[in-house]
Each structure stands twice: as C-alpha cells, then as structure tokens.
Amino acid sequence: xxxxxxxxxxxxxxxxxxxxxxxxxxxxxxxxxxxxxxxxxxxxxxxxxxxxxxxxxxxxxxxxxxxxxxxxxxxxxxxxxxxxxxxxxxxxxxxxxxxxxxxxxxxxxxxxxxxxxxxxxxxxxxxxxxxxxxxxxxxxxxxxxxxxxxxxxxxxxxxxxxxxxxxxxxxxxxxxxxxxxxxxxxxxxxxxxxxxxxxxxxxxxxxxxxxxxxxxxxxxxxxxxxxxxxxxxxxxxxxxxxxxxxxxxxxxxxxxxxxxxxxxxxxxxxxxxxxxxxxxxxxxxxxxxxxxxxxxxxxxxxxxxxxxxxxxxxxxxxxxxxxxxxxxxxxxxxxxxxxxxxxxxxxxxxxxxxxxxxxxxxxxxxxxxxxxxxxxxxxxxxxxxxxxxxxxxxxxxxxxxxxxxxxxxxxxxxxxxxxxxxxxxxxxxxxxxxxxxxxxxxxxxxxxxxxxxxxxxxxxxxxxxxxxxxxxxxxxxxxxxxxxxxxxxxxxxxxxxxxxxxxxxxxxxxxxxxxxxxxxxxxxxxxxxxxxxxxxxxxxxxxxxxxxxxxxxxxxxxxxxxxxxxxxxxxxxxxxxxxxxxxxxxxxxxxxxxxxxxxxxxxxxxxxxxxxxxxxxxxxxxxxxxxxxxxxxxxxxxxxxxxxxxxxxxxxxxxxxxxxxxxxxxxxxxxxxxxxxxxxxxxxxxxxxxxxxxxxxxxxxxxxxxxxxxxxxxxxxxxxxxxxxxxxxxxxxxxxxxxxxxxxxxxxxxxxxxxxxxxxxxxxxxxxxxxxxxxxxxxxxxxxxxxxxxxxxxxxxxxxxxxxxxxxxxxxxxxxxxxxxxxxxxxxxxxxxx
Length: 834
What we know:
The chain starts with a strand and ends with a strand. The model has no long low-confidence stretch (mean pLDDT 90). It has 834 residues and is an alpha+beta fold. 26% of the residues lie in helices and 27% in strands. It has six domains: 2-40 and 163-191, Phenylalanyl-tRNA Synthetase, Chain B, domain 1 (2-Layer Sandwich); 46-158, CATH 2.40.50.140; 203-410, Phenylalanyl-trna Synthetase, Chain B, domain 3 (Phenylalanyl-tRNA Synthetase, Chain B, domain 3); 429-486, Phenylalanyl-tRNA Synthetase, Chain B, domain 1 (2-Layer Sandwich), CATH 3.30.56.10; 502-593 and 628-730, 2-Layer Sandwich (BirA Bifunctional Protein, domain 2), CATH 3.30.930.10; 745-832, Ferrodoxin-fold anticodon-binding domain (Alpha-Beta Plaits, 2-Layer Sandwich).
C-alpha cells in the first residue's frame, strides 16, 4: 500500500517536519514491513508560463514546430524563446515550463539547446513528461485543470509534485490497511496522534434514497455464505464527464500507484484508496432495468473492462440487469455499462462481497484487480454507505452533478460475535506481565468494545477487523499495540523426551559418516521411468508395480522411483558431461514400493477445516504405498588422483565395500558380503549385503551396457541398502566392546579350497571353530596359479587372538587356529597349504 503523506495528514495529525523514514518507523512498530519511499523524480526550476505568441514553422521532414515566446516571470528572466512540437495550445494559455537546470523523470535534464534553427531556452511540458499521466500528444494546459496561477509560480508545488508516498507491505489478514483510513488509524496507534475517521459521518447524510430496484438472488452460496451482504446504490445526474481531474487528485493517485483515467473513474478509485471500499460506477443510461446480484448461468459470457470476453463459471458472482451479466462482482465491471466522456447520469454502487467468492473468481479468470485485492482480504461492511456518499459528494463537487433521490440499500445487521478473553490469558501467552488496564486499553484502542466478566472480558471486535476471531488473535493485538520490544528474548528450554528420534539420529550418523569418508551427498527428484524402475529394483529385471503420477513434472519420468540408483546415475551423467569424472556420491531418500495387486489412492477427500480423526488417518496411511528410506552409493573414475610419484588408482569393489562398511559402522552393525545377482550388475562382481541372515541390500559393478546407456565411461560401482531395515536391526542402542589390556597374538593361515567357495563362508567357519579367543579374521590374499590345482584357490587369513585376562602363549593361539581349521575342513573340505 502506497500512502501519500499529504493525504495521510488529512486523517491523522502528523507533526510538521516528520520525514518519510520516521513515518515508516512508526508503522513498522505496529507490525507493518516498510517497502519503499516514492517521489516524483523531478527538480526545478519548473514554473507557470504564459504563451505570448508563436510562429508555425514547417520542416523538411514534414513536421511543423512552433517557435514560441513564453513569459516565465521576471525572476526567471522574463520572456524566453522555446521550440515546441505540440499544437494544442493558443496565445494567452498558461502552461508548465521546465527551465534549463530542471530535471524531469527519466532522468531527463533540461538545458538550452539549439534545434530547428533556434536556441530553445527551456521546454513546455506535457502531463507524461511531468509524471502526471500517460497523455503525451500535447502539452499540459493549466486552464484544462481549472488552474489560473500567476506567471512564474512554482509549478511543482502548484501541481502537488512535491508530495511523497511511503509504501508498506500489507499482509493478507490486515486488509483494512489497504486504505488511507486504515493506515492513518495505525499511525495513530503507533504515535498517539489524533485520528479523524473519514467514514464517521452523520447518519442523515448517508440516506441512499429509494426507488431503484436491486435484488440479491444468490442461489449457490459457498460454505453457506452468500456472495454479497451489503449493497448500496446512489444516483447522480447531469455530470460533466469531460471535466479534467484536478491535479491534487492526479498526483495522489499517481503516488498511490494508480494512473489517472478520467474524472469519473478517478473519483471511484480515489474513494477506494481513501476508505478501503471498492466502488463501481455505471452509466445509468446504458442500464436495462434494475440490478440483481446472482451466480452466473451456464454458458454466460461477459466482456470486462479490459476488453476480454470471458466465459463465466457457475460459482462466479455477477452483477446483472435485464440484459444479462454486466460485471464480475468485486473483480471488474463490464464494458457494456462503462462510464465514458459521454456519460451524464451515474449509478454509484458500494457493496461488501464474500472474500472467498471474489478470490476464486479472480484466480479462475486470472484477473487480479485493486478491487479483488481488497474484497478477498475483507472489507469493512459498515463503510458502504459512507463510501457511496463520498463518491456522490465528489461527483457533485468536481463533475457538477446533482444528487438524485433514486437509490437503494440492503444492509443486514452488522453485529459481530463476541470473544471471551480470560484475565490471565494474554500475559501467559505472550510472556509479558501486562496489567488488566493495558490489555483492555490496547483492545479499545484498536476499536474493540470490551465488557468485564467474572473471569475476564467479553470482547466485540470492530467491523473493519475480520481477522479478530478468537482469544489468540486478540492477544497478538495486545502484543502489537503494547510493543513487540517488550517481549523478552528467552531461549526456551527443551522439555525432556523431545528432540530427534533414534531413527533420525541413525540416519544423520550414516550421512555424516559417508560425508566424512569423502563422498558427496546429491539429493535428487524421486521421479524416473518405468524401465529404470524395472532394471534397478529387482534381481531379475522383471516388471515391477510402480506409482504413476497423475500430473508428472516431466512426461519422460512419470513414475516414482523404486530405487535410488537411477537418480545417482543422472547426477553422475551431469557431472561427467561437465568434466567432473572422478565421482564418489551418495543419497539417502525414500523409495516407493507398491505391493502387487493393491490399489492405492484415497477414495475420499477429508474435510480441510477439521483435524482428521484416528480412523481417517488410518485410511490415509493405507492409501499410500510403503515408503522405506534407502541409502545409495556410486563410485566412478579414480579413487586416488594422479600426482607426482603416484599413479592414478581407479575406484574398485574394495572402495565400494568400504563405503558399505562405513554405513554399517555408523548404524552400529556388522555386515557380510556374499555372491549375488542383479539385472543391472556385472555377474561375478555383485554382492548381496547381509546383517546376520537378513539381506539388507546389494553392492557391485554396473554392466558396461548399463553404464554406457547413461553415458558414463569406465567402471561404475553402485550399492543400495535399506536404511530403515539396517537401523531397525541395529536396535535402539549399541554396546561398545570392552578393551583388553593384554597384547594380541597374530598368526596367518592359508587354506586350499574350491575356487567357487565364497571367502566369507570359509571365514565364518574359522571364526566359529577358533572360539572366543579369536578377535578378528581378515582375508589378506586370494591366490590362483602355479602350484595350485585347477579349480582350486588359496585363501590366506590374518588371525588375531587376545584373552581378556592374560597374555596368550603361542601354543594357545596355535591351538585356537587349528580348531578353526578343523571346522573349515569338515564343512568345506579345506586343507592347510603345504
């Protein structure tokens, strides 16, 4: 909302010398955000001049200029010669002259310059050049504005171009501040200055008259609320629509961000800005019969004032006469009854329309307007009569009209519901020890009627505050009026039992561990193709059920992901395309795993105005597929970059398995790897990841064809684990192993086994047989070659033994090792290599 200061001073006492910044600071103190300060960007000397004479001089380019002699007063050098290209003035006319040294909006500096064979010592200005409107076809003649000022008078002050406007941001719940009336009241609240309500007029002045038929026939109210509550019409006859809009009104409208159109339209806009109630004027001679307020009919059309013909919706509220719809109520009028320069009789309409109805209509037709902006936030229902009378007054004063007794008014009761406010509620909620007098005084200051009760107060909000609906909003008003600076800044103490859940802490540990290990987190959109889902979400690559989006962002990715790998591949492709080829990426996120044969989707839409009950929440949960959280990892390129004395080392399965172990360690579990198969992974280079006997995911190298399809060169390694399951298996608590103060005994053992035996299976046998003294068993070598029979291999394990209460002897360590070898021999036919 832009607020011209000269206008603001009409309704509230602003001390002389108060700067725009000080006014903004006062408004900020009562909860408004400051936006900007607006001025007419021009400087003098700009004065009133009189055209003494001129000579028309045709030019070779076909244009005719006038060489004018203009008197600008003795203080400005008397008569000056000025070249002008306009032809809409006569000798003796008084005009606005910008003299050398002046600067017009643009900026456009004025200087004496030679043109068309003359030295033009200034410029005769048009309305557009002064920032007063869009008219640029001719110069501004003061007589057309009804101004007769002495030659040499400062035109900046004469035309109100020295005025300033402050702009504030008005939130949707404070629509009353979209008016000078509302802002002036708030400035008074902030400073204690005297406020004069422009809508407070004697009832006798507001008689709307009778005899003009108006019918409210809303047969399709939204949420039980009819589309219009107050509707007032007044009639003014014999207006002179060709009269100019006075400069003070033009400048105020311009500073408020509204361009001048014509006197009749400018008056309605002026009153809308002043009182906050949008006004519409009809050319009475173009109306057919009376007015009715109703919903649009099927197939009905309307040409609005912007020249567009719109097909109306059954929810649209329209103003109609006997010919049909003539306006979208609260949004925009129709072209058929538009006021023009030929208008002689005006029907003035002031109404209060339902905010929901207006908001839906404006959005449906993509037709925001100054009127809809106010109606959809709530207009004071008590101001319609005063607004209509204010327009009537201005039409009589400025357009020469005569008030006609023809009119109508439909004004239901304006009683507001009362709100019970307990005595200690406001201090308890805000945290400030307000006294009872302070609470009551703040509420009465904003216009509430406050009556004492046994437990506190019964509060009736004013008609212009539809946002005051309960005791919480009343408490906010007390805090605002008393000053936000009184509210202490205290860091609240977190109550016991709050904070992150065990699962949230586990997920954070996993992400932090991977980031600490050098991987980069790359969140991605959960959308992919059915083919990618089938390829990466099952071992066989067979089609899997997917959740298909009703309105996908990308038609090429219409389903929700079943795996994180497609997203990681997209991220890798984008990086490789930009020259980043050495990648270590991870992502944690949900995947969507609908069950075969289950239909998902809500069979109903729960009401939006109430909290769903337990049964409704169950139905909503059942309407969506399982969404477990996974963690995915991708390696590509080099794990170690080339450097002097160090060749590059490509990422391999060891790096991938290490990342999986980092995840497991952060979760608090041990994982094992076993040979596995996946449709998208290389056979023989794919592992199933398990915790105990539970499979939690997979890790391996992508098939070259799959990597190539994503334009990824070289080897690409991926892993994906069910993070929710992993954390569930880890349990809520992890117990750290006790440390022995005694030294370890280390021994190696090399076992000859079948080439197809997984190393983990042999390790499990060694661990089981060696017993509690074995602290760790780590595979250090896998040999196949000379000295080993075909179809056989030699696996070497480094074994570490330790006792918690003594130093082990070599004999004890050897005995434990051989016990493990015995189990491996009986289970897998292993033998110690000679």
